[in-house]
Amino acid sequence: MKLTLHVWRQKSPNHVGRMVQYEHTQVNPHMSFLEMLDVLNEELTGKGEEPIAFDHDCREGICGMCGFMINGIAHGPQPATTICQLHMRHFKHGDVLYLEPWRAKAFPVLKDLVVDRNAFDRIITSGGFVSVSTGSAPDGNAVPVPKKNADLAMDAAACIGCGACVAACPNAAAALFTGAKISHLGLLPQGQPERYQRAMNMVAQVKQELFGSCTNIGECEAVCPKEIKLEVIARMNRDYLWASWSERGDAVRADD
Ligand code: SF4
Ligand code: FES
């Protein structure tokens, strides 16, 4: 089948980008979206042109490296699907597709469809871990975890850090990502000692990066390939508020 692709081409962060049109005539419905781009890139390389840069690693929907906009939708039109798991059978002969990188100040474009997501790494570094100061890791089954909390923590842990939530949000907020990480650890017994300080530190880091504020629009949840729910944002806000009130010696209000 044949597709018309309009692809954002940008040599480097310092160059001005533009959309470039390609007629792709060798698209097979069994290809993944990235394989379709691989074939186009081989053709471009054969003609001595620069191939289209895009991020990828596992191509199994688990690493979070891939992702860009297809016709304005983060990860494309298939719900709960990363671009590497999106197949060309979901498109038809003659389709016109516009491919653009994530658009957010906190994710500057490095090249073509590749953006710099180090801001996410800095949020994780600010608190997205459990400190183990001494001894070895405890046996996995030594600490009982209520089933409901284990399930909720597992759901939050499914976040792969792809950044689609930021790209889809009109405010370019990182609330779904940060909420998922805070919830994942805050729901488990091992995460309790640092729970409120973690929320304070991670939210403070989000503010330092160039992300916008969450206004509960919900576009993040709609595009998330791992179906992370907005509840994680509520959980993050509760932990953050509790931590702020505690810091002011006002903690009793959190129980009201
Ligand atoms: S919350 Fe969803 S969309 Fe956002 S980074 Fe995690 S997996 Fe990607
Ligand atoms: S390449 Fe790993 S999630 Fe897509």
Structure description:
By secondary structure, the protein is α+β, with helices and mostly antiparallel strands. The chain has helices at residues 33-46, 118-125, 147-157, 164-168, 175-186, 195-208, 219-223, 231-247, and strands spanning 3-9, 18-24, 69-70, 73-74, 96-100, 109-111, 114-115. It has eight helices and seven strands; from the N terminus they run E-E-H-E-E-E-E-E-H-H-H-H-H-H-H. Strand 3 (69-70) and strand 4 form a beta hairpin. Helix 3 (147-157) runs antiparallel to helix 5 (175-186), helix 5 (175-186) packs antiparallel against helix 6 (195-208) and helix 6 crosses helix 8 (231-247). The longest helix has 17 residues, at 231-247. The model has no long low-confidence stretch (mean pLDDT 95). Iron/sulfur cluster is lined by residues 159-165, 176-177, 180, 224-226, 228.
Largest sheet: 5 strands, mixed
Helix content: 25-40%
**What gap, in angstroms, lies between the N and C termini?**
62 Å
The number of strands is 7
What are the secondary-structure elements, in order, as H or E?
A: EEHEEEEEHHHHHHH
Which strand order spans the largest sheet, edge to edge or round the barrel? 2-1-5-3-4
Tally of contiguous helical segments: 8
Task: Provide a compact summary of the structure.
By secondary structure, this protein is an alpha+beta fold.
Please describe the structure with a list of short key phrases separated by commas or semicolons.
single chain; 256 residues; alpha+beta; 5-stranded mixed sheet; two-stranded antiparallel sheet; 8 helices; binds iron/sulfur cluster; binds FE2/S2 (inorganic) cluster
